[in-house]
Amino acid sequence: MPENQKKLIVIVPMPGTYLLDIAGPLDVFTAADKMLSETAADNDIGYEIVLASPLSTRKVATKGGLEFTCPAKVDELDRPIDTLIVAGFSIRNLETGRRFCNWLHDAYPKMRRIGSVCIGTYALAEAGILHGRQATTHWEHSQEFQRRYPDIQVDTNPFYTRDGNVYTSGGVASGIDLALALVEEDYGRDIALAAARKLVLFLKRTGYQSQFSSLLQIHSMENSIAGKLQPWMMQHLQHDLTVEELATHSNMSLRNFNRVFLRETGMTPAKFVEKLRIEVARKYLEDSDLSMEQIAEKCGLGGVVSMRRTFMRHMMVSPSDYRRTFRTSLHTVD
């Protein structure tokens, strides 16, 4: 692509996706282009952003029911694509997206880079673009995604990942994080920061997706030992909850309890108890006015220092930072 030609950014809004999947990256690239037009001497520096429908029609409906008409369909694009971003995907209708995935497979080698927002990773995976690569997706779909595509290394901690010229992002708002990173990669930190300030965003958010995801999928364990023990453990978190005590409460031998627990949950009883303590601590941090000392005691996490160390290991953010970020809106921010 000539140096003096604007980079063509193609955003593909998949039907039934959240509007923010589309609007987030669109607004970031638009804001960055405006900054560049005001500061760059060359008017051809910047971005041209195009929404391109993956369907046989240019009309695409979002999850919220808003329908809009794209300026083009993907197979009508006749200019070299610098960056293509797949915004969302419909897991339930993988077959209906086959036509687009086939087009994506053929078009990808001609692009400088490609990315996805949220479960747009499914489109990249179905097109064979993620084969043998590292990727992230929405934390809620990570286990199903890994089962479906075992050759892809899934890491749902980061907001976005890069493997070569393939970029994937996690939850809906992570598309904004990815777009800002791409702008910084293209035109430097100052332009990316100016765009972030214009949109009142963080250039780089602290933390990881694990802040949002549930550490324990209790609902899928209702008939397991862990599922049956969980209500009792919740009432006794301030106690030691040794493996021996858990086995006794389950009327099982220690050896058999350990074996069955690991098979059913994929983790040891001690790790399960630790994760449960953190889940309960999260709720106290979000919804209560309890001090750190009180939360640590109620959850059996020892003192404040011990709780912070354990919380950081699981959530990659301190309890105080977590509280500032996720405290319910009814609480007054100091």
UniProtKB/TrEMBL annotation:
Alphabetized Pfam families for the sequence: DJ-1_PfpI (PF01965), HTH_18 (PF12833)
TM spans (from-to): none
Domain HTH araC/xylS-type: start-end pairs: 227-325
Record PROSITE patterns: HTH_ARAC_FAMILY_2 (PS01124)
Keywords (A to Z) from UniProt: Transcription, Transcription regulation
UniProt protein name: GlxA family transcriptional regulator
Keyword Transcription regulation set for record: yes
Organism: Chitinophaga rhizophila
